[in-house]
Amino acid sequence: MKLTFNRLPEEKKQRIINACINEFGSNSYEKSSTDRIIKKAGISKGGLYEYISSKEELFLYIVNYGYEKLNSHLGWDSWKKDRRLPLALVDRMYLYAENVIDFYITNPAYVSLIVNTHKISERSVEIKVDKISREHFNRLFEDCDFSTINIPKRKALDIASWLIMKTRYDFLSEIEVESDIDKIKEDYLANWTYVVRILRYGITGMTEGVRYDME
To answer: pLDDT value at position 205?
Structure first.
């Protein structure tokens, strides 16, 4: 983003950011429109290009902004400093689920934005978005203890990333048809409890007393 954007009054800057989140969250990158962003933000077309060099630059900025807001909500930097984060990957994944659901519920447009980053057709943009996603994901999970996991660290992180992405899809699907916030939270965490049990005990359920039945 150009320096002129950072010098904007906070209210105007936030108005543009919100318009971008709404547009990029409602449409794929390729189908999103700077004209709609301009209209939603209440600025001129020439005004927008005083702040950005291209639609791609704007999109990458907004994606990073969305992840920063999510990570800020989690507040895990202070947790790490105080050594309060569990080291086991599975435990940290569930802690993530417990803490992130409130952000999802109050910021569904951010969730839609992040989900849409997995629907990019333009390869050069996809690579840059993937880099942003991995950097933020690694900040949350890369320092886990992988000594008790019987697959390579990178594979374990890929599985964790995929599961987080899948549960975002599930959340968005449910919030479209369900208005009861407590039920949405309950279903989301029940889904994660199920996932964690399978990760702990294996898909065959051979551990004595372990059952995977779900209503």
So the answer is: 57
